[in-house]
Amino acid sequence: MQITINGDSREIHPGWTVADLLGHLDLRGRPCAVEVNRNVIPHRRHTDHVLSHQDEVEVVTLVGGG
Amino acid sequence: MSTITPLQEIPPLPVGRFTLRSRLVVGTGKYENAATMRSALEASGADAVTVAVRRERLVNEEGRSLLEDLDLDRLTVLPNTAGCFSAEDAVRVARLGRELLEQLGNPGSSWVKLEVLGDRKTLLPDPVGTLEACRELVEDGFDVLCYSSDDPIMAARLRDAGAASVMPAGSPIGSGRGIANPAAIGIILELLKDPASGGIPDYPVIVDAGVGTPSDVAVAMELGADGVLLNTGIAHASDPIAMAQAMRLACDAGWLGYRAGRIPKRMYATASSPWDGVISTIPGE
User: Fold this and answer.
1) Which of B30, B113, B121, B193 is catalytic?
2) DSSP state letters, B101-152
């Protein structure tokens, strides 16, 4: 199953949740926010939000800025 | 025996649901290293700091997270929407910033520094997109601190749209050109804060962007601004820690100077020493 993460196309297992994806990316436990198809998926829903084919996922964090 | 009057305390600044102890708000970008940033933030006295929302780098393992270098027990984080060129993207970024700060338990989750930019070269705000995003974020429950140009009518429109603070640019972001149009900032302050012009004295106006030196900060505050937000002026100074302290002192000096009431400007001199009793010959008399 193919999705887009931060602009890059990737293959993932069907049935993966947002939490599974973050675990695969070594991001679990790190402060990050996730958007799927332009909607924020709150942290409490990461374990039950199942990703779909061609989902567009953004994973963001905070960096220095003005 | 004489006594010295203690220095006057600068009162905190209420902005929406927040109360800033320091009227100087500083950014966390462009520092050479994390240690310098930490020391400069401390020297600035700021209790609110701006941050940006960016994609996680998924390929190369990055080093430290910014969050490890911010004292989150003391600082309120103000996420910005820098880099957004449409109202839609700015609203998305604001919501992502809120989600991040909610996870961290930082009070900054309920405010945002809104920037909707017109183009990459000038980084000037897109007024139409800014107004649209401001309305949507206010509706969504954010306290919106709204980056704007120094156009007084635009500032009033953003205030009317529910912005918790309007933040006119002194000059373009990172330009260090200071307060390019003091008259325009003066009109904004009158329009938004003077009851005679339909303003509210407590409505917070924070000058944001282009501030390069302590004297620029003082000029903004002497015009009657409630605060100043800056980043590059400190981060890219040769000695950011010394500059942070200088900016802090200038902010206090300007606040006091405005309230102390300046003397009117005059074309000609007025002597400070009395004319009575001079022993000299005065030319022309």
Assistant:
1) B113
2) HHHHT-GGGGEEEE--BS-TTT--B-HHHHHHHHHHHHHTT-EEEEEE-S-H
Residues of B in contact with A62 (CB under 8 A): 51-54, 65-67, 77, 79, 97, 100
* Residue B211 confidence class, pLDDT cut points 50, 70, 90: very high
What is residue B7's predicted lDDT score, i.e. its pLDDT? 77
**Token pair recorded at residue A4:** 């887009």
Contact yes or no for B56 and A25 at CB 8 A = yes
Token pair of B163 as six digits: 């912005």
Task: Please give the Cα distance from B65 to B41 (Å, whole number).
Answer: 16
pLDDT value of position B61: 57
pLDDT of B68 reads: 86
pLDDT tens digits, B63-75? 678 888 999 999 9
pLDDT in tens, B164-177: 999 999 999 989 99
Q: Which two tokens stand for residue B246?
A: 């200088």
Distance from CA of A34 to the nearest CA of B (A): 7
- pLDDT greater than 90 at residue B151: yes
> How far apart are the C-alpha atoms of B95 and B117, rounded to whole Å?
18
What is the 3-state secondary structure of B198-217? Answer: CCCCCCCEEEECCCCCHHHH
- Using an 8 Å CB-CB cutoff, list residues of chain A that contact chain B: 5-8, 25, 27, 30-35, 38, 40, 42-43, 58-66
Residue type, B73: D
How far is the C-alpha of B225 from the C-alpha of B193, rounded, in Å?
10
- Read off φ and ψ for residue B258, nearest 5 degrees: -60, -45
Distance from CA of B143 to the nearest CA of A (A): 18
In DSSP terms, A8 is beta-bridged to A5
Kindly give the pairing relationship between strand B206-208 and strand B165-168: unpaired
Query: How far, rounded to the nearest angstrom, does the alpha carbon of residue B64 sit from its chain's CA centroid?
Result: 27
Residue B81: name the closest of B122, B119, B130, B26 by CA: B130
Longest dimension (CA), chain B: 84
- In this model, does residue B60 exceed pLDDT 90? no
